[in-house]
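Here is one chain, start to finish.
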Amino acid sequence: MKCPFCAHLDDKVIDSREARVGDSIRRRRECLKCGRRFTTYERIDEIPYMVIKKDGSREKFDRQKILQGLLKACEKRPVPVPRLETIVDEAEAFVSEAAERERTTTEMGELLMSRLKRLDKVAYVRFASVYLDFKDVKEFMDELKGLLKDRTRK
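Its structure:
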């Protein structure tokens, strides 16, 4: 493992345990050159989860890509990152539970939007505006009106 601080290739494992979800191993390592410690996560190399895009092409499920989209939607919002990581964990579980180990981007988008809608309405609208690809202001306003109706029902 390459040290992230000095790029030295030799280290020793200080501590090893299952990560939160249980499908990966968390290891604390210490660089044998600079002595600094860092954490690595190891996952079993399995058949990749796939996402079927709207044009029919398939793409490998990418946790980081989903997290980046959620972070962008939640920019300058009071949403803790661990909550977003939980949403990404749910999305990954959603794909892994599928019989064929793949889901459509439509299914994924609906899941992510429903979680964001409960978490932060502004982040939801931001995410939906990109995901739903509104063609004009009317479509955008219709979505906002739906949100306002939900709010008045409560």
